[in-house]
């Protein structure tokens, strides 16, 4: 079976695709998997690093306002569709699975009428690419109810290390790795793979003003960002955390953005959080966090309102209240999906088999 995955650009599109690829390989190691991407996306590094074949197609961003790009869009899109369709024939694709982003539009349009299509939407508010693809897809999967018509609620495919994580069992070894005392409360702070400057600055100010007192802070500041405060016995700044399973196990609470993958992982492992949604885009991050906030498993604060005062007056009282932490942990865990990769893989295999008949 030949499976083609289209999900380039950001980690939010690539990671679910790669997690699905891992699950498909577990089901049948003989499955051939090819990932479509563009030269400008993170897939150039992430896909080969996971051991999968990457084929580049032209990027065709859809202009959101009147410009010269809008005039040339039809020509560029036709060319990208033709190149992608030729590639799908060369690969003898049995199914095309799209995850949104620039690469998905030409993939969906190239596959339409010739190859079975499955669309997966990670966010509560679907992007343009998936709204287009869902109209003629053979199957649609979603992470949040109501994001797309005809969608099956599956959740977002997670890494096996997160799907199977038992935070309690790993807590001691995780804290030893990061140099955090067993008896100390710990807040994990991150802003996605690139970090978040606003969150970094507020956390730095909190550290310098002593807001956290004896609480340990494990802070992923982002590869391109400077450490926001000097390291100490209670403050652990890191450019990047490659073992998020250990970071989740070491933490009692999280401060982060609200990307779909982040929300899904925290729900799956039952880790309470304060979400600070990215203030740009179409507002999907606030919508992503909505269900777990409503359930009582997380807090949400707009980017503009996230401040030293908010951390001191709203987050710290929660962190120091064991009963509140446990209640939030239980609440967020009720919305977690630990078998999403398997469910999506089964759906993809079913569509591909039907296409072979």
TrEMBL record:
GO terms for biological process: carbohydrate metabolic process; cell division; cell wall organization; peptidoglycan biosynthetic process; regulation of cell shape. Residues 3-141 form the Glycosyltransferase family 28 N-terminal domain. The keyword Cell cycle applies. CDD domains: GT28_MurG. Residues 187-340 form the Glycosyl transferase family 28 C-terminal domain. Signal peptide: none annotated. GO terms for molecular function: undecaprenyldiphospho-muramoylpentapeptide beta-N-acetylglucosaminyltransferase activity. Keywords: Cell cycle, Cell division, Cell membrane, Cell shape, Cell wall biogenesis/degradation, Glycosyltransferase, Membrane, Peptidoglycan synthesis, Transferase. Pfam families: Glyco_tran_28_C, Glyco_transf_28. PANTHER family: GLYCOSYLTRANSFERASE (PTHR21015:SF22), UDP-N-ACETYLGLUCOSAMINE--N-ACETYLMURAMYL-(PENTAPEPTIDE) PYROPHOSPHORYL-UNDECAPRENOL N-ACETYLGLUCOSAMINE TRANSFERASE 1 (PTHR21015). This is Unannotated protein. It comes from freshwater metagenome. The lineage of its organism: unclassified sequences, metagenomes, ecological metagenomes.
